[in-house]
Design a protein that fits this description.
The structure is a single chain. The chain has three domains: 152 residues, no CATH class; 161 residues, Phosphoenolpyruvate Carboxykinase, domain 1 (3-Layer(aba) Sandwich), CATH 3.40.449; 259 residues, no CATH class. Helices cover 35% and strands 22% of the residues. It has 17 helices and 24 strands.
Length: 636
C-alpha cells in the first residue's frame, strides 16, 4: 500500500519538526520514491543516477538537524549542506504537490464531557492546520537562510503547506453499529475537518463505466477488515446517516477531501444519541471480489451496505458520489419517497412599489440529487415537498465559462484537470440548512438537451397534462456528452433520468424488482397528488429545452441549426442555455404572481421552488450559471 502521511504529533519549533516521527516517515517515503524514479532512468543516465542514489541513501533527519543547529557552516561543509537543503526543498514541494497528508487530533471531549462543541473543534482544527503550515514554511526558510539560498524576493504566500485534510476525530465506538459490524467501530470518526483547496488530484480513472447495482450477497468481509487501513467520514445525506469508509491507499484516500466538500457532516446530536447508521459505504476495499461492486440490504441488521473494490478502473470520484447517492435513493424509495436526479433552486421573488416581480435570491436546494416527500398540509391537500442532498457540486468544467471557473477558485477540490474532457471540480454551492429544509415544489421540468427550438418560441412547455409530462420523465431521453460509457452525441433513455440505481434497462426490463415495484407505488401517489395540484395551478409540469447537446446530435442538420438561430454547432452549447435561462426567469415571475394572488395578493415576497430533472450534461448547472449572470447575483 503506497503510504500516506498521518500526523498526530504536535510540534512548535523547526527542531521539533525535524525530530518528529512523521518527518522521518515522510523522508523515508520521499527517498524511496526518488530512488525508484532514478532506477528507471535511461541507461545513458546510469552514472548520474547511481551517484544521486548514493547521496540520497545517506540523507537522514540528523543531517538536516545539524544544518539547523549550526551557528555558521564551515566553508568546506557548505557544498554538502546546500545539496542537503536542495534535496529537502524538493521534498517540501513534493509534500505540497504530490503527497497526501492528514493531520489528526482526537476530540472525544465533544461527546464525553460536553466541554467542546463542533464549532470549537472546527476552530481548533483550522488553527492546527495553519500552525503546521506556518511551521513547515518557517523551517524551510531557516534552512535556505543557513546555506545562503534565501536571497532576493520571498514567495511565502503562494506556498501553502497545509495538510490535505486536518481532521478532528472521535472514537468510532460512539456509533451504534450492529454487532456484525463491530470492526468498523475501531475506525475513528471524522467530525470536523479543514481541507486544502486549490488542489487537483489525478486518479487512475476519470469516468464511470460499470453500474452500481443491487447484490444478492453482503460484499463486506468483516473478518478481513483491518481498521488501521481506513478513514471514516459520517455524512448526512438527505434524511439518512451514511458513514463512508475510505481505504488509506493512494487512489482511494484522495476521495476524502472531495466528499468533505460535497456532503454535510452528520450531526453530533445523532452521534450523542447513539444513532444507528442507515448505511455504510466502503471505498477501495482490497479484499473485495469483482462481483462485490454494488449495494446490499442487510435485512437482519437493518442497514444498507455499499462497496467499491480496490481496482484502478473504479478509482474515480464518480464511484464515490454516485454510490452514496444510490444508497440515499434506495432508502428514500423504501420510505415511500421519490428520488429525483435533478437540479433544484428556490427563487425568492420580491415585488416592488408598483407590484412588479423581481428575483432577489437564488438558493440552491440540489445540484444533482434530491427527493420528493408527499406530505399532507393543514388543508388536507397532499403536496410534493422537496429536499436536497449535497451542499457541493461535482462540476464538469467543459461547459462552464471562464467567469464561472474564477468563482470556484479558492473553494475547489479538483480531479483530473490534465485529462482533457470530463475534468471535474467539487465546489460548495449551498448551505446545510437549504438542503435539509423541505419546500413545496412549484414547477417540475424534464431537461431535454437535444431538440432544437426556433428563435422566438419559448424553451419551456410547463402547462402539460400530468399524463403527458410523466411520459417524458419515464422516457428520460438525453444526448450524452461522453462522460459515461455512452458515446458522445448518442441518444439514450433512462427511466426518470436514472434515479440511481437504474430502475429499467434500455429494453424496458425492470431491474431490482422489489425496489422497482416500490418506486412504481411511490410514483402513483405522486401522480395522484400532482393531478389535483395541476388542476389548481399550484404545480406545473413539463419540459425545458436546454439544447445543450443539440449541436453534437447527428439528427440535427446544419439547416435545422441555422433555422433556430445558430451559425455553427459549437455555438449551440454556448448560447442555448442563455435562452432557457431567460425563459425560466420570465416563467418564475409569472408563477410568483399567481402564487401571490392565491395567497390574497398582499405578500411582499414569494418563494418559488423549481426542479429540473435530467442526467449528466442536460444543462442543469449551465442554465443556473446563466441565470446568475443575467440576474447579476454574482460579482466577478
Amino acid at each position: 500500500m503506497e503510504q500516506i502521511l498521518e500526523i498526530r504529533e504536535g510540534c512548535n519549533t523547526p527542531e521539533q519538526l525535524v525530530k518528529s516521527l512523521p518527518f522521518s516517515r515522510f523522508l523515508k517515503t520521499y527517498k524511496n520514491e526518488f530512488i525508484d524514479n532514478l532506477d528507471h532512468r535511461d541507461e545513458r543516465q546510469h552514472n548520474e543516477a547511481t551517484h544521486k542514489i548514493d547521496f540520497i541513501k545517506g540523507v537522514c533527519a540528523r543531517d538536516i538537524l545539524q544544518v539547523l543547529d549550526q551557528e555558521e557552516i564551515a566553508e568546506n561543509d557548505m557544498e554538502r549542506s546546500r545539496n542537503l537543503v536542495r534535496f529537502i526543498d524538493g521534498a517540501f514541494h513534493h509534500f505540497r504537490s504530490s503527497s497526501y497528508s492528514r493531520l489528526v487530533r482526537l476530540q472525544n471531549d465533544v461527546i464525553s464531557t460536553g466541554l467542546e462543541t463542533p464549532d470549537s473543534v472546527k476552530d481548533k482544527v483550522t488553527e492546527k492546520a495553519t500552525t503546521l503550515s506556518d511551521l513547515i514554511l518557517q523551517t524551510r526558510r531557516r534552512l535556505l537562510r543557513k546555506v545562503g539560498m534565501e536571497h532576493g524576493v520571498r514567495r511565502s504566500h503562494g506556498l501553502d503547506a497545509s495538510p490535505n485534510v486536518t481532521a478532528g476525530e472521535i472514537s468510532g465506538h460512539y456509533f451504534n453499529l450492529p454487532a456484525d459490524y463491530v470492526p468498523l467501530s475501531h475506525v475513528p470518526l471524522t467530525i470536523a475537518a479543514d481541507i486544502r483547496t486549490g488542489v487537483d488530484y489525478s486518479t487512475p480513472s476519470n469516468k464511470r463505466a460499470e453500474p452500481f447495482y443491487e447484490l444478492d450477497h453482503n460484499p463486506l468481509k468483516m473478518d478481513q477488515f483491518n481498521p488501521d487501513d481506513w478513514v471514516s467520514v459520517p455524512l448526512q445525506v438527505g434524511a439518512w446517516l451514511i458513514v463512508a469508509y475510505l481505504h488509506k491507499s493512494r487512489g482511494s484516500v484522495e476521495m476524502e477531501p472531495g466528499l468533505l466538500n460535497l456532503f454535510p457532516f452528520a450531526s453530533i446530536s445523532d452521534i450523542k444519541e447513539n444513532r444507528r447508521p442507515d448505511g455504510v459505504f466502503i471505498f477501495g476495499d482490497p479484499n473485495a471480489e469483482p462481483n462485490d461492486l454494488g449495494y446490499f440490504w442487510d435485512e437482519e441488521n437493518q442497514i444498507l451496505v455499499g462497496l467499491v473494490p480496490n481496482r484502478d478502473e473504479l478509482k474515480y470520484f464518480g464511484y464515490c458520489k454516485k454510490p452514496i447517492l444510490t444508497l440515499h435513493n434506495v432508502l428514500a424509495i423504501q420510505k415511500g419517497e421519490l428520488p429525483l436526479h435533478c437540479g433544484c433552486t428556490r427563487y425568492m421573488v420580491h415585488f416592488d412599489e408598483e407590484n412588479q416581480p423581481y428575483i432577489g435570491e437564488m438558493l440552491i436546494k440540489a445540484d444533482d440529487m434530491g427527493r420528493i416527500s408527499l406530505q399532507k398540509g393543514d388543508d388536507n391537500q397532499t403536496r410534493p415537498i422537496f429536499f436536497g442532498t449535497e451542499t457541493g457540486a461535482f462540476a464538469c468544467l467543459d461547459g462552464f465559462s471562464e467567469q464561472a471557473k474564477l468563482l470556484m477558485i479558492g473553494r475547489e477540490v479538483g480531479y483530473n484537470k490534465d485529462t482533457g474532457s470530463n475534468a471535474r471540480q467539487i465546489v460548495p454551492v449551498t448551505e446545510d440548512i437549504e438542503v435539509m429544509n423541505g419546500d413545496p415544489l412549484d414547477m417540475l421540468l424534464y431537461m431535454n438537451n437535444f431538440d432544437l427550438i426556433e428563435k422566438g418560441v419559448s424553451t419551456i412547455d410547463a402547462n402539460m397534462s400530468v399524463t403527458d409530462a410523466i411520459d417524458h420523465f419515464r422516457l428520460g431521453e438525453r444526448v450524452a456528452a461522453g462522460s459515461t460509457h455512452t458515446h458522445r452525441g448518442s441518444k439514450e433513455s433512462s427511466y426518470w433520468a436514472n434515479p440511481f440505481p437504474l430502475l429499467r434497462d434500455e429494453n424496458d426490463t425492470p431491474l431490482h424488482p422489489d425496489l422497482y415495484e416500490q418506486y412504481l407505488s411511490n410514483e402513483a401517489h405522486f401522480i395522484s397528488a400532482a393531478k389535483e395540484l395541476v388542476d389548481k395551478k399550484e404545480l406545473h409540469l413539463g419540459v425545458a429545452f436546454s439544447q445543450l447537446m443539440a449541436g453534437v446530435y447527428s439528427e440535427n442538420s446544419d439547416d435545422d441549426l441555422q433555422r433556430c438561430g445558430y451559425h455553427d454547432r459549437d455555438e449551440v452549447e454556448q448560447l442555448a442555455p442563455t435562452r432557457l435561462a431567460e425563459d425560466l426567469i420570465d416563467h418564475i415571475k409569472e408563477l410568483a404572481v399567481e402564487k401571490r394572488e392565491r395567497s390574497g395578493g398582499s405578500l411582499d415576497e414569494v418563494s418559488i421552488t423549481v426542479a429540473l430533472v435530467g442526467d449528466s450534461r442536460t444543462g442543469k448547472s449551465e442554465t443556473a450559471e446563466k441565470m446568475e449572470g443575467i440576474l447579476g447575483l454574482q460579482l466577478i
